[in-house]
Structure formats: C-alpha cells, structure tokens
Design brief:
Chain lengths: ~110, ~110
Amino acid sequence: EAQVTQNPRYLITVTGKKLTVTCSQNMNHEYMSWYRQDPGLGLRQIYYSMNVEVTDKGDVPEGYKVSRKEKRNFPLILESPSPNQTSLYFCASSLSPQGMDTQYFGPGTRLTVL
Amino acid sequence: RKEVEQDPGPFNVPEGATVAFNCTYSNSASQSFFWYRQDCRKEPKLLMSVYSSGNEDGRFTAQLNRASQYISLLIRDSKLSDSATYLCVVFTGGGNKLTFGTGTQLKVEL
C-alpha cells in the first residue's frame, strides 16, 4: 500500500530534550516536506526537500532541522524543543514539484512540549 | 492581508443542499490551485485541482477567477460524509511556495 508513515504519532516531552520525528514514504517520491498545523494559522511549511541531500527552508524553519540521506526518509529534528513548538506535524511527499502534483500526507504527529 | 483567505465557517447545511465556498489569494503570480479535504485533525487529502476553465468531479465543481483572484468549490447534493474542513491551496512558482488556507468547516446535518 502506497503511504507516508510518521513516528511517533503522539509525543509529550519537556523543554530542551532533543527529539526526532521520523517520516518515510514507499512511493519513490523525490519531493518531501514537513508542515506544522496550528489553530487559526493553517498548515505552514517548515522544510522541504527536492531530492537526496537537497533541502531548503520553508516559512517557519526556526528551531527545526532536517536531513535527507535516503530518498524514502525525511526526519524532522528538534534539537531543543520549546513550548511554542507544540503543534500537529505532517510530513508530505509528492512525485513532482509541489505545485504540480498531489501532496500525500502522513497521519500526523501531535507534539506537546511542556 | 493573508496570502490565502477562507471563511472558517462552520457552514451548517441539511443533507441534499448545495453549498459553495470561496477562497481568495493575494499573489497574482500564483500558478496552481487545489482543494484539499481534512477530516477532524487527520491528514489532508487532495479533493481536486482547480483548472482555469473550471472542472467538475461528480458532485464537486471547482472554478478559478484569475481577474478577481479567487477560487471556489461547489458541492451539490451534500452528504453526511462531506462533513469536513476544506483547505484552499495555492502554489506560487517564483518562490516555489505552497500556501494553505486555514480551511472552511462544513457540517452536513440530517
């Protein structure tokens, strides 16, 4: 089954404790992105990647890091999480550049930073 | 002004009704337009792309008005299963940017 998976789905952590949210897709897509969704603000792009070892900042990259060492994986790293990073996070992938093709989203990761 | 604006709703309509949502965008250079559907904090899923000539998929019709910079979504014969939040999405090639609206909530009632 074609899908985007994220882990963990739910996470409660404390300020400053490094964490990684994994994202994996099995569709051989070149393009992958991370978004956060907050009430009243909609989905905002954090980072995107056009291919292995090629990443670029989105609208809200501060406090986040990403890496793309393999085509299928695009982990999101919070080196020192803070309460304002409490949010619902979605990973997405697409075959073509993001404006030309369907974005396939993972199920989401609900993160709470205390 | 927000780059993509939608009326948050909720739109409460009876089953069988026709309902329309609009979405306005601020960047006249925007190139591609989409409607996504999101159920109760689950992942968004593509409902349909929006083409310049307008397009229809079953009970759903999407239209683009470049002069006035808005797109619309019309749902005919609403079903209970149409209850969801509908996200307007706009792509601007110059900045390689995909911008999501905050969504319009639809509730279809018996």
